[in-house]
Please model this.
Amino acid sequence: MQSLLNRVWIALFLFLGCPGQAADTLDWRMDRVSADIRSTSLPDLLKQVSAASGWKIYLEPGTHQPVSAKFKDLPPGDALRHLLGNLNFALVPRTNENPRLYVFRTTRENATQLIESSGSKHSANRQSQTIPNELIVRLKPGANIDDIARALGAKVTGRIPGLNAYRLQFTDAASADAARQELAGDSNVTSVDSNYAVDPPPTAIPLASAGLPPIQLQLNPPDSNGKVIVGLIDTAVQPLGNDLDKFLLKSISVAGDANPEPGLPAHGTSMFENILRSISSVSGGNSSVQVISVDVYGPNTTSSTFDVAQGIVQAVNNGANVINLSLGSPGGSPLLESVIQQVKQHGDVVVAAAGNDGSPEMYYPAAYPGVLSVAASSAPGQLAPYSNYGPFIDLMAPGNGIVYFNDQAWLVTGTSASSAYVTGVVAGTANSQRLSVADAGQLISSSSSLQFVRPN
Model:
């Protein structure tokens, strides 16, 4: 049973050094790391890294080295190289456990001193990430959004015609606020809402070696009736090779053309492979499940709740009946919730990541009613330290996993990966047991099999 990972948004502050000096800072987001450290001890640094990532860290006894580094927005692997200098390190995945990081001068086997974490890293009540100069407007049938936008001095940057929903962009936040007041009195307008930024996806971490082989999965001819199609709402998906690309039915973008780094698996690519590995685990290596990829990031660092809603509509309109949302935001969107409820009314299944703040903070779309909200576990029955928790959670699933890209093993971690894992189990179970996706979703959500457990 394999696992997966996503973004953890955390800010760590190391109040170290001599009195009167500025505090050293380490901002570890799992996908991007920034640091401004003048001088701190290696054990203190590793304590903070352990608290942020959930990794178990082992240090070779007698290794003493002051840490001094300054950099911004590096992937975790590159950040570790800057922080650890000429020391060696190895990040090793563990089955149903958090990864282990070994830091050593001589050999990995000599890294035996466990670094005790300095405590969990709750992100302090992150505010909803409103896009200040944008509004989402829904109109009555027959109303003309272009006329309305022209009168307001706005630009229409997104349309979902079937829902009469539109994304308006203004020159600044003050113009958007003024337009909101004016639209509230327009009889052609049914609702005006904010648009929210959706967190950036994390990058995978390269591994020197992995104990899990590449996926072996063969595509069976899809049934003419009762097809199971996963809608992967994420970044763009790159080719995987090894016959796995046959499972990708279609690629759509609602956010422009992406340009992923050729040597690095994009988040959507990692989630695609995690879904396929999960399908393989429940289907015996053969399946007719296929995937529609909908890119809601394009060339941008973040997505938005409008683009996610549009992505779901595109996936469903092209036949998807299991929707994977390995993404999210602290901001709830009425438009996105409405789209998800319509999808649920058709008997489709929506699976979403619970968030990686290590807090009980509500995370959307996972917190919407009817969504299978998935937290990450570090071991059977144990919540991963970075995972959100609370009454809105339906399931826990393993939070670490391995993907292969360009013949290189990569480690992915977080609730986004847990969500992809559950999506694959639901789709694979529906396909292999000839169930409706709704029945398969209900079976999985009410079962403790496959090491799923409901968190306390």
Residues 1-22, 119-126, 449-456 have pLDDT under 50 and may be disordered. The domain at 205-451 is CATH 3.40.50.200 (Rossmann fold).
